[in-house]
Design brief:
- There is one protein chain.
- The chain has 314 residues and is α/β, with parallel strands linked by helices.
- Helix content is 40%, strand content 22%.
- The protein contains ten helices and twelve strands.
- The chain has helices at residues 4-16, 19-26, 30-44, 60-88, 106-117, 130-139, 203-215, 229-237, 247-250, 284-297, and strands at 49-51, 56-58, 93-98, 122-127, 144-148, 158-173, 193-196, 221-225, 243-246, 257-261, 270-277, 311-313.
- Strands 3, 4, 5, 6, 9, 10, 11 and 12 form an eight-stranded mixed beta sheet that branches. It has a two-stranded antiparallel ribbon with strand order 1-2. Strands 7-8 form a two-stranded parallel ribbon.
- α1 crosses α3 and α2 (19-26) packs across α3.
- The radius of gyration is 25 Å and the shape is elongated.
Length: 314
């Protein structure tokens, strides 16, 4: 029979690499903790730690077991939260994964409104990119994911499109010649340096942007490639180059940057933001969070209801 307390004891010692500190954090005596670890090693038939006179370290088997023990505890804690939620009609905690570039307006409004309705529910926000959120939803690390530019609903997940933000402008240092213009055309940007993002970060948008530039007669001179939107804007403010931005990004307002509309960008160029979750066994609080996001996002005129199959749209 699996003793989760021994697993917790092992993970704490592995985190602290010190029996005394681990015992204090666990609220138990060091002798009790030592007996628990020895009993776990005996039941597994392996040594988890190499013990020295002044320090300890994980064995190779211990390194592998730590990964599995941590994952098992995570699943056990999620099962307990779901069970408590079924009894108490709410989840104790909702864990949300958020891509940094997503939801400049929707998420803050949702969090304020949700806390008013469910003051006893802890909402934990973790910054994660799209590729990390999909497996995190499946393994229970997060309950709700805020992603963008996902071509289709990932297997087993329910998806709701909540925002489409057109890419209509260029961000450039406020002292540059074109920064005072009311609008520019793509061909006027041909000789300027670009701050770009990788193709893997957003394949559809990357390809559409490159195609638009080529149709205007040039290949962008990319001098820096970074994926985080705030990093791109920081580089623009520092005079490194220019970058295309979505309408929602313009609302950030960054010192030293001018946002200039580009008259001939294609209308199908946009960032699409979605939320995703596992559809089974949804506690009332998570259903309430999803419904609140849907209501809040529906107030934006940039949204569309035309979405692919297997998606819900607003």
């Amino acid at each position: 029979m699996v003793d989760l307390n021994r697993f917790r004891h092992f993970v704490m010692v592995a985190d602290e690499m010190h029996f005394s500190r681990a015992a204090i954090k666990l609220g138990i005596g060091q002798p009790q903790l030592s007996r628990s670890i020895k009993a776990l090693e005996h039941s597994l038939g392996i040594r988890l730690f190499e013990r020295g006179t002044r320090n300890i370290r994980l064995t190779q088997a211990g390194e592998i077991f730590l990964q599995e023990a941590s994952r098992m505890l995570m699943h056990a804690e999620r099962a307990q939260r779901l069970a408590r939620g079924a009894l108490s009609d709410e989840m104790v905690q909702i864990k949300i994964g958020v891509k940094p570039s997503a939801f400049f307006k929707v998420l803050p409004e949702v969090l304020v409104a949700f806390r008013e309705q469910w003051p006893n529910v802890d909402v934990k926000i973790t910054e994660m990119d799209d590729r990390a959120q999909i497996p995190a939803l499946h393994d229970g690390s997060i309950d709700l994911g805020f992603l963008d530019n996902v071509a289709q609903a990932p297997d087993g997940l329910e998806v709701l499109v909540v925002e489409r933000s057109p890419i209509t402008s260029i961000a450039m240092p406020s002292g540059w010649r074109l920064s005072k213009r009311k609008s520019v055309r793509l061909a006027e940007l041909a000789q300027l340096p670009f701050v770009w993002f990788s193709h893997s970060h957003s394949p559809r948008v990357h390809t559409q942007m490159i195609t638009a530039c080529r149709n205007a007669g040039f290949v962008p001179n990319v001098v820096q490639e970074v994926n985080h939107v705030f990093t791109r804007l920081s580089l623009v403010a520092g005079g490194v180059g220019i970058c295309f931005v979505a309408d929602t990004t313009r609302e950030i307002g960054t010192k030293g940057i001018a946002f200039v509309p580009v008259a001939d960008l294609p209308p199908e160029l946009y960032l699409e933001h979605i939320i995703a979750w596992l559809p089974r066994a949804l506690p009332p609080t998570l259903r309430a969070m999803i419904a609140l996001i849907e209501r809040k996002s529906s107030t934006s005129t940039s949204l569309t209801r035309a979405v692919p199959s297997r998606r819900r749209g607003v």
